[in-house]
Specification:
This protein has 566 residues and is an alpha+beta fold. Helices cover 68% and strands 14% of the residues. The chain has 10 helices and 12 strands. It has a 4-stranded antiparallel β-sheet. The radius of gyration is 58 Å and the shape is rod-shaped.
Amino acid sequence: LGSSSLQASSSMGSLDFVREQASRGMQADKFQQALADNAKLSRKVRALQDQLTITSAKKEAFKAQAQRLEREFRKGREQSDAMQKDLLEAKREAGQLNKEAQEAISMMAEMRKAHIAEVKLLQRGLAARSGSDQLRNRVNEMADLVDKVGRAVVQRDEAIRDRTQMQAQLNKALKDLRSLSDENTKFRKQNKQLSDSLKEARRKGQCARPRTSAPPEEGSDSEFEDEIRQFEKRFEILEEGPAGLDVLASNLSKDKQHLEKRVRAQQDTVRSLNQTVENWKQLGGQKDQQIKDLSTKLEKIMRDHASFEEQIAQKQREIALQVEEEKAALEARIQELELECDNARADADGMEKASTRLTRELVKVHEQYSGAAPAAAACTITSGAMTALAPASRNWARVAGADSMELKTGERLSIDVFRDGEAVELRAREGADGEELRVTVDTGLFKELDEADPYADLLSRTGVNVGSPRRLVVSTRLGEKEVELKPKGTRVLLSAYRYGAKHFVLIGTDLASQAMLNLTITEATLTPELEAKISASEGDAATFDALASSLKLSDSGNLLLDTGSD
């Protein structure tokens, strides 16, 4: 029993073997569990990589789309700005052209009015050319005044033309200045964009080491991507061992070479961008110098424009002063002429009173020598004596007249205008011993006459009707307007006057050559066709049109009736 107690038990050895086998089995189970967990983690990592790839692709797509939309928006905005500038420029040019057109139209209207007034004055002067010396002097004075006013108008037109030229130069300079300002603004924007691009290139070209002191924000995408990337690298190194480290080192060397190449390329890009910026700076300096030069030229033009305006104003003041002086001289002359007219009127009244007294003495002498009653003596007086006695019953005063005046109807008579209150009478005599003709003037006729000198206009419209009996008449004005005469359509300012049923006087002015045209139509020269047209006309306007349609202009420039034969 003692010896058996000292021997080793065989069951304990088997128990140790079972324990080692159990521990190895547990270790193998743990390894299998670790491998299963590793496989699960690798599948999760691949799924996360796929999700990250899809998310990165969507992010890049969204970013590219946003950049494209931004470029399109910037392009559309630039186009809208350019269109807005073009619209403003077109509006400005349209306003300027409209203003110039209105000024040209107003200038043409003023020139046309002045031209018609000069033509009328020339007609009146030519009509009164054969009148008295007093009318001739008035016409000469009015012609001198119109000549001076015409020269003043010409000077004004020249000043306006110079001003228009200076305004056009100013507008052109302003337009150039605006275009240079727009180019300068565009260049500044381009410089700013290039500066921003340069800063971005410098920022990308700098190879700065990542800062590990500040941990990334928890839950961010960059932190998650960094952790996954580091995990992948550690996992690859663990799987590959030393070979993985060699591959990682070679990859890092390649990445380093690639980054060095990119750095050199970025440095070259930075140098080229710096050179471009310097070129743009030089170009901007040149543009600034051009703007300064144009500003200096613009200031000079403005000063010249101001001096021109001052000269124009000075010239206008001188012309106004000269016109005022001439107006004052003419008014003084008119007062002197009115005083002479009053003196002549007083002398005429005295002569008329003396003539009345002599007529009464003559009647008394006839009564004494004839022995008849005063009534019978008055009946035996001739018609000439009766006409001499007639003015004694009224207080007639001579207000105007002309000696040996050639009328438009062709006669040369001495005509006097007498007035008593509102009553006006014309008296004409051919020679010293000729028959005296009289006619009473309707007061409504003075509305058609010239307000400045109605009696001169009245004398110019006086004529003789050669019918039976021979009468002194004042013509009826049928009308006055521009007409086109055959055969070449010559434009003529035509006036028509009627002295009888078959007696007309036509006066015209060729607007192209300023030649005076005259034509007298009598019963002898009146054609049957024209007589039929005049008889069928209703009113003065229709008669004027009938006369104007029957006229033509000969090759020598004379006014003739169109008889239908060449």
